[in-house]
């Protein structure tokens, strides 16, 4: 029996024996190597869920994972045992109208690892061993570490957000909120050709991390709350805003710095936000959402395989799975941590 990290209630996280289950012809049995703790994992740990989504039964957490193939199904001929992979946590049905339209991230029967949105819950991937579909496995290059491979999922979120913004070549970009997703948006925007990237946050460490991965300027809004005013002259400076904090004040405070017909991509979630309609109309702003990803997962792995992006500066700590409670406790401390990962070796 393999062990997994199971949430039962807020602050009730346990290591439990789990049955891996049988292997179907088109499936892979994978030894999980590394897993990153996401914001949704922290919501389950600290609050038992978010919004109307609540834990109703014990659930294995985790969806940012990498591993090594241990066994292949009898119908699989293109992968061998021992292959290192990043694992996409997203299993779209492929049959609903949105899947047929190429909008798999809006699948009506989505099964996403470590999610209490449906009942029974979709069990997550924070476990020593897991059986996955062949379509979820993306081969990583030898130079890509297990920790980096586990960053493919959050990088996919950032890539999808950047695609939602449209062409960024030569554009001036503002990113509000420099947690892991905001910092990864910096990386993705740079690869997409952004001319200038300015970031804001209220904590020092995330701002330093954003500079390390390519931001031109980092503004601490706690120390210099009026710093964006200089960008508001002549109706604004930025062509695109990526709002990654989920904070209403961050969004509304950034609007004067946006040029007419700027695009706002809302990436962060933090509850209902009141948006000033007068600015939306007066500046002809375009406010867009960005939800999960699909084909961007393969793109994220390929970018790392080709050494076109570097996510290593964002991985700040790795804990053995036996110390998962300690890892979850420290992961939300934005004064000390960016991405906290768990090792399952």
List the helices and strands and how they pair.
Blueprint: E1 2-9, E2 12-18, E3 27-36, H1 39-47, E4 49-50, E5 53-54, E6 59-60, E7 64-72, E8 84-87, E9 90-91, H2 97-100, E10 111-112, E11 129-133, E12 137-139, H3 146-150, H4 152-164, E13 172-176, H5 180-191, E14 196-201, H6 204-212, E15 217-220, E16 238-243, H7 248-254, E17 258-266, H8 277-282, E18 286-289, H9 296-305, E19 315-320, H10 324-331, E20 339-343
Parallel strand pairs: 13-14, 13-16, 14-15, 16-17, 17-18, 19-20
Antiparallel strand pairs: 1-2, 1-6, 3-7, 3-11, 3-20, 4-5, 7-8, 8-12, 9-10
Helix pairs in contact: 4-5, 4-9
Mean pLDDT: 96
Please give the share of residues in helix. Answer: 10-25%
- Structural shape: globular
The number of helical runs is 10
The termini sit apart by 15 Å
Structure report:
- By secondary structure, this protein is an alpha/beta fold.
- The protein folds into two domains: 2-151 and 311-343, Medium-chain alcohol dehydrogenases, catalytic domain (Quinone Oxidoreductase, Chain A, domain 1, Alpha-Beta Complex); 156-289, NAD(P)-binding Rossmann-like Domain (Rossmann fold), CATH 3.40.50.
- The chain has ten helices and 20 strands.
- The strands form five sheets. Strands 3, 7, 8, 11, 12, 19 and 20 form a seven-stranded mixed beta sheet that branches.
- Strand 14 (196-201), helix 6 and strand 15 (217-220) form a beta-alpha-beta unit.
- Helix 4 crosses helix 5 and helix 4 (152-164) crosses helix 9 (296-305).
- The longest helix is centred in the middle third of the chain and has 13 residues, at 152-164.
- The radius of gyration is 20 Å and the shape is globular.
- 46% of the residues are buried.
- The model has no long low-confidence stretch (mean pLDDT 96).
């Amino acid at each position: 029996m393999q062990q997994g990290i199971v949430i039962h209630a807020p602050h009730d996280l346990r290591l439990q024996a789990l049955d891996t289950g049988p292997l179907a012809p088109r499936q892979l049995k994978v030894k999980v190597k590394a897993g990153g703790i996401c914001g949704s994992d922290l919501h389950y740990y600290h609050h038992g869920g978010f919004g109307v989504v609540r834990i109703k039964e014990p659930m294995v957490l985790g969806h940012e994972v990498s591993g090594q193939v241990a066994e292949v199904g009898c119908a699989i001929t293109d992968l061998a045992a021992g292959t290192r992979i990043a694992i996409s946590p997203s299993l779209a049905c492929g049959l609903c109208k949105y899947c047929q339209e190429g909008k798999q991230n809006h699948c009506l029967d989505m099964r996403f690892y470590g999610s209490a949105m449906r009942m029974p819950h979709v069990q997550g991937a924070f476990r020593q061993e897991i059986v996955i579909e062949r379509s979820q496995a993306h081969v990583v290059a030898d130079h890509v570490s297990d920790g980096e491979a586990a960053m493919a999922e959050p990088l996919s979120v950032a890539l999808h957000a950047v695609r939602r913004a449209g062409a960024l070549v030569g554009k001036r970009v503002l990113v509000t909120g420099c947690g892991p997703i905001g910092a990864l948006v910096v990386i993705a925007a740079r690869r997409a050709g952004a001319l200038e990237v300015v970031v804001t946050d209220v904590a020092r460490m995330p701002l330093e991390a954003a500079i390390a991965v390519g931001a031109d300027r980092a503004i601490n809004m706690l120390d210099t709350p009026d710093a964006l005013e200089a960008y508001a002259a002549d109706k604004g400076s930025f062509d695109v805003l990526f709002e990654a904090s989920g904070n209403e004040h961050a969004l509304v405070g950034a609007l004067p710095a946006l040029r007419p017909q700027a695009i706002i991509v809302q990436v962060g979630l933090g509850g209902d936000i009141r948006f000033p309609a007068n600015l939306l109309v007066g500046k002809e702003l375009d406010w867009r959402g960005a939800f999960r990803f699909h084909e961007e997962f393969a793109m994220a792995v390929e970018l790392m395989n080709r050494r076109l992006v570097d996510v290593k500066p964002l991985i700040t700590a790795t804990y053995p799975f036996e110390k998962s409670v300690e890892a979850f406790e420290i992961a939300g401390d934005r004064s000390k941590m960016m991405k906290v990962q768990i090792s399952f070796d």
